[in-house]
Amino acid sequence: MAVVSKAFVARLVGLAVLGPDGESIGRVRDLVIAIRTGGQPPRVLGLAVELTTRRRIFVPMLRVTAIEPTSVTLNTGTVSLRRLNLRTGEALAIGQVLDSRVRVDDPDLPNLRDVDLTIVDLAIERTRTRDWVVNRIAVRGGRSRLGRRAQTHVVDWTNVRGLTHSSLQLPNQGVAQVLSQFEGMRAADVANALRELPSKRRQEIANALDDERLADVVQELPSDDQTDLLTHLEVERAADVLEAMDPDDAADLLRELPATEAEALLQRMDPQESEPVRRLMVHEPDTAGGLMTPEPLVVTASTTVAEALARARNPDLTPASASLTFVVRPPTATPTGKYLGCVHLQALLREPPANLVGGIVDADLATLSPEDDMDTVTRYFATYNLVCGPVVDEDDHLVGAVTVDDLLDHLLPEDWRENETKVSEMGTQPSGVSR
Prior knowledge:
Blueprint: E1 6-8, H1 9-12, E2 16-18, E3 24-34, E4 43-50, E5 56-60, E6 64-67, E7 71-74, E8 90-92, H2 93-97, E9 101-104, E10 117-126, E11 132-140, E12 152-156, E13 160-161, H3 165-168, H4 176-182, H5 187-195, H6 199-208, H7 211-218, H8 223-232, H9 235-244, H10 247-255, H11 259-268, H12 271-281, H13 288-291, E14 298-299, H14 305-312, H15 319-322, E15 324-328, E16 339-344, H16 345-350, H17 374-384, E17 388-392, E18 398-403, H18 404-411
Parallel strand pairs: 2-7, 14-15
Antiparallel strand pairs: 1-10, 2-3, 3-4, 3-8, 4-5, 4-11, 6-7, 9-10, 9-13, 10-11, 11-12, 15-16, 17-18
Helix pairs in contact: 5-7, 7-9, 10-12, 17-18
């Protein structure tokens, strides 16, 4: 397969990164560049590579021996596992530079003179000294009066004006190219990508995401980043995002805010959405009541097995929440009527669809109390080999359910997203590699 010495940045995203023996290290997610002064073309410092653990690391371009149409090959299988952190003077090509505005002074394109253009791609080339530099830029103007997309032009770097670190700090930068990279990505992976960007860029992307998508992403961020994003949104938008979040995650986030700000947001939320959040905030965060979701899978004893399975297929339910169906007397909204027991998903799968859930209820499984501490909850899951457990109050009403993912979030250190344990992977070992 032909080795290339020129490439467009956007086409590198997603390529496999391989060691010298063909072992897989990760995938390219972005490029780190240094924007230089004096008219010098930006230098490509390295790759932002996503490992199988979803951590993004920096791999220097000097380690790259070949860029092929389907992969990037390194001259070593040993790389630093330290999380990618940009230094002063550095920028992410996809995350920060694309969608920024420049002007072009190209004698062959006089119609573009004094026109604000948007960067849609960067062309990089390997020099005789083995350095990689940005030598050309693909730009596009605004849409025509008829709504047609403007033509894309590829111009030499020497004819580009206005791409500086200061220009990247200007407001109202577009996000189309970044959002296209996020399509199909899990919320946790988008959250990881956002953490690498400056606050200004994160906010522009957050403003462009719809409420549901932003809520999913916010739930995967560390608490400091959550509050930073939320407090920079308009109050109405922040309330909408909180409504779209899982109630337990929304309650955790609001606990991080000053009481007056939290109350102001709760008042802006729809009462039906804010009421379960308020109930969760009554409990201490490190108790079953503080951990639980108030919206588990709940049915009555007269529900058929077929209907219960259909409810369990709801894509909005996590696998842990879908593993256990709780049976109660009406009402089925928490706090429910008298709690009767639960039915495991496997039990539902073994029963004829027309049978009633009431005939296979497990009434002997112990329950959790809202006041149970973390140690009690942890021992409960270990004892009964569960990933979901009912939380029942003193009056025998089901008030929620704790799932193992929520438990793990609280058992891990608060900064676990920022300081992941170094994991040995195929071809990756900690090292002292630097730029």
